[in-house]
Amino acid sequence: MAKVIEGLFYSESHEYLKVEGKIGIIGITDYAQKALGNVVYVDMPDVDDDVEAGTEFGAVESVKAASDLISPVSGTVIEVNESLEDAPELINQDAYENWIIKVEMSDITELNKLMDATAYEAFCEEQK
After folding, report:
1. Which residues contact 82 (CB under 8 A, 6 or more apart)?
2. Residue 120's domain is classified under what CATH number?
3. Helix segments in 2-82, DSSP class H
4. Each residue's pLDDT tens digit in the chain (128 positions)?
5. Would you tell me how many other CB atoms lie within 10 Å of the CB of residue 31?
6. Burial of 82 by CB count in 10 Å (0-12 exposed, 13-18 middle, 19+ buried)?
7. Residue 2 included in any domain
8. Using CA of residue 9, residue 26, residue 122, residue 115, what is the dihedral sign?
9. Contact, 60 vs 69, CB < 8 A?
10. CB atoms closer than 10 angstroms to residue 47
11. Which structural domain range is residue 72 located in?
12. What is the DSSP string of 70-116?
């Protein structure tokens, strides 16, 4: 069973969102990294790029497949996790510690469209 953390928000495309004030910290879930296998590359946007909820902001590539990253919220990228450029496999070691981007959220009500940990666990069970 993939690890799911209470207090985070989750999307159907298997991104998680940790909220700290107006900042959203976005990464892929443990379920997603297990499905992908060994991550070999992470394509990330640039700082100051705008992201929109439900649209692609990058991609994660593994030895098995490439998967688009879909932003769970809209806003402006304020930081990218540069350590993933040299060590993308950090996502496999701990998907929740190794976030991909940080976004200053422009519409906090978008959180209402995301799942909590309980709903996401049920969603993952249905995916099997």
Report:
1. none
2. 2.40.50.100
3. 30-36
4. 789 999 999 999 999 999 999 999 999 999 999 999 999 999 999 999 999 999 999 999 999 889 999 999 999 999 999 999 999 999 999 999 999 999 999 999 999 999 999 999 999 999 87
5. 21
6. exposed
7. no
8. positive
9. yes
10. 12
11. 9-127
12. E-SS-EEEEEE-THHHH-TTHHHH-TTTS--EEEEES-GGGGGGSB-
The length of the chain is 128
How would you list the strands of the sheet with 39-43, edge to edge?
A: 39-43, 56-62, 66-70
Residue 51 belongs to some domain of the structure: yes
Q: Per the structure, how many domains does the chain have? A: 1
Q: If you search the block for the tokens 């070999």, which residue do you land on?
A: 40
Residue with tokens 């700082």: 47
Does 46 reside within a domain?
yes
